[in-house]
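Follow-up to my earlier ticket, as requested here are the two runs.
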Amino acid sequence: MGLDPELVREAEAARQRLLESQHAAERARVDYHHAIRRLHAAGGSLREIAEALRLSHQRVHQIIDEAAESTRPRWRR
């Protein structure tokens, strides 16, 4: 017995919507983190940014450090 072609089409459409949603969510996350880094680069303190965005200052620190990690050289043993 083969697969119902209509159900296969529905599954393919659902998969496409999922991939598009995941891409949009990732893009939004990147934009949000970039905005936080810009606030910091413009002189905002971790605590000021955290308060304005209703985050912990530790989370703001993590977001800012994530960008710095990608530019740090990785040392090999």
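Run two:
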Amino acid sequence: MKILTYPTKKFLKENDTKVFNVLQQEIRRQKEGIELIASENYVSNTVMDAMGSAFTNKYSEGIPYKRYYGGNQFIDIVESLAVERAKKLFNAEHVNVQPHSGNPANMSAYFALLEHGDTVLGMSLAHGGHLSHGLPINFSGRWYNFIGYTTKQDTGLIDMEEVYALAKKHKPKMILAGFSAYSRNIDWKAFKKIADEVGAITMADISHIAGLIAGKQLENPVPIFDVVTTTTHKTLRGPRGAMIMCKEQFAKVIDKAVFPGIQGGPHEHIIAAKAVAFKEALNPKFQQYAKNIINNAQALADALTKRGLNIVTGGTSNHLMLVDLRAKKVTGNIAEKALEKAEISVNKNLIPYDPEKPFVTSGIRLGTPALTTRGMKPKDMEIVAEFVNKVLDSIGNEKKIRSIAKEVKKYASKFPLFSF
């Protein structure tokens, strides 16, 4: 990706200096730091242009060419463009690009296909699932009966024998495959086979790996599963938003669940940006980008392993990894704060069978989409791993961590991000 030349925000600078000044600080943070949060990335200038456009001024409840407001003739064109590009990108029969984010996308899918109290078999949050996959205080856990499958204690891999046993025992209305913190491939066909045997609807949440699927590096569940949800940022490198893909037989109930079931008017400036991002992902160059993300993740995992850190599952097949910090006698929350002081952004994360609480954790989750967008390669992951390791070995030594922060800023400057 070219150096980003986001607008200098002339009007913001002139009319709201407080917000402008905070924006400048955030730009500095992104430029000078190392972004290792697996769900974050940098959008292109073109995506940014679409987000900050006149499309934001229009109300457009309904779907293209079936709106509840007038004046949508051009909105219909741009949203239809997003839909058609998404269909091509993922080989989807039907697409709704209106969900504002991943949580309401999943909510809409459940709303369309389930009744309150229905049983869903999904990945346990303690083993890598997402909060919208059954967290008790999330709508999903309050409204539906989620049964969590786990990973094997010795390998960290999804226990497919357990998935089958739980499906046979509980006869779920839906089987959900997808994750927020799992570093290996999912066997979509195996999940589909189990679902067919027990008569369950199949749903996949590919929010984290959508870009790797679009880039033809991982298997695509869209032709296999009944419904697939995804965010449009993360590895897909689009604006913050989401979409739902499904078989044609579910198209009407999915569309009605999004609107008027869950949401009101769609954010058409974001949908325009989604259309742009889908075009970028359809470029054959995106396939190499997706491959580079995985290569960098594997190089980073290897480099951390060499430094005595344990990677859950022994490595990664996608863009992320869970790092077990217990060998360093450091908890995830302490590591996250120390790394942040060194201009390295990560997030604390539970590891499977974690003895710590969710706000403490024994691990951190790392990912390589943002660093790959900046142009870093596997050789750079060795240096990044050394930065991380040095911080973890310097917990409590503020002077040393400040020194590492200077090294990080100097290294990050070799990979320019913004230009004004």
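The only thing I checked on run two: The chain has a mean pLDDT of 96. Let me know what else you need.
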